[in-house]
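so my prof wants the structure for this chain in the tokens format not the other one, which i didnt know existed until like an hour ago. anyway here's the sequence
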Amino acid sequence: MPKTKAKLRFSVTVCGEFFPEVYPTFRSSRWSRGEEDPLATEMRLFCSCMRWAFNRLLEGVSRDEIKKLGQELFGLNSRYADDARLKAQAVLDSQKELLDLEVEETEKKLGRARKKLGLAMKKLAKAEEKGAPPEVIEKLHLTVKGRNNRVASLEKKLAELEAHWENGTIPKVVFGGKKLWKKVCKGRATREEWQAARKNRLYS
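here's what i got, hopefully its the right format
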């Protein structure tokens, strides 16, 4: 039998430009903020609509209702409002897929952590049996304590993930990036950086 040729798959990136409907460019004072240019305004409103749509999807609101209310609440046209909903749906779908992977990965980490805890406890027991120096015993106790904390932390995380899986829910999503938000909380990044990351997209 003749071999079938594999279909070639490729992606194309299309560059676009933002052309306002009127010139000079402006956005209604109802939607714009200060000296914000129209594109920045559009991105901010789109991202706000996407986050809002994400929460409405979690509540089970219909596509048509999200599209209609999105236009009213954020001053977007029909296409942008629907694209914001589609983007929100994509985020929701990816989080559901990620949940399965997180459960599996956390189970593996917990298994390794329990094994390390068992080894540390055996090592401590042998050291105590042989009458090892106090400083050695103390160090081993600290190791066991650290391993115990690690196991407890992973058990808590796994229980939370499994609860989400059983209830058909997902862990809290941080728009703008969870890592960046943690940096903000630790004072390693500014709130302005995080807010900028939350409103720098426009899909259509």
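also thought this was worth mentioning. The radius of gyration is 26 Å.
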